[in-house]
């Protein structure tokens, strides 16, 4: 998701760990949005 350019230091380990934590945050946010708006409203069915 995050382009390499976003990690100017080029630390692979740091990039991977921050990528993983970002993914967790995005997943949690997505789940919260889904719960608050409702699956039917979200998917437009």
Q: What amount of the residues lies in strands?
A: under 5%
Q: Over the alpha carbons, how many angstroms does the gyration radius reach?
A: 15 Å
**Helical coverage, percent range:** 55-70%
- What is the terminal separation in angstroms? 28 Å
Q: What's the overall average pLDDT, rounded?
A: 68
Q: What is the count of helical runs?
A: 2
**Sheet with most strands:** none
Number of strands: 0
Shape: elongated
What structural category characterises the helix and strand content?
mainly alpha
Poorly predicted runs: none
From N to C, what is the helix and strand string?
HH
Give structural notes.
The protein is mainly alpha-helical. It has a domain at 13-37. The chain is 69% helix and 0% strand. The protein has 2 helices and no strands. The protein has helices at residues 12-37, 39-43. It is elongated and about 35 Å long. The chain starts with 11 loop residues before the first helix and ends with a helix.
Features:
45 residues, single chain, 2 helices, mainly alpha
Sum this structure up briefly.
By secondary structure, the chain is an all-alpha fold. The chain has two helices and no strands.
């Amino acid at each position: 998701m995050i382009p390499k350019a976003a990690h100017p230091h080029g630390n692979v380990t740091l990039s991977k760990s921050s990528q993983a934590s970002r993914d967790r945050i995005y997943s949690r946010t997505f789940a919260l949005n889904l719960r608050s708006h409702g699956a039917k409203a979200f998917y437009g069915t």
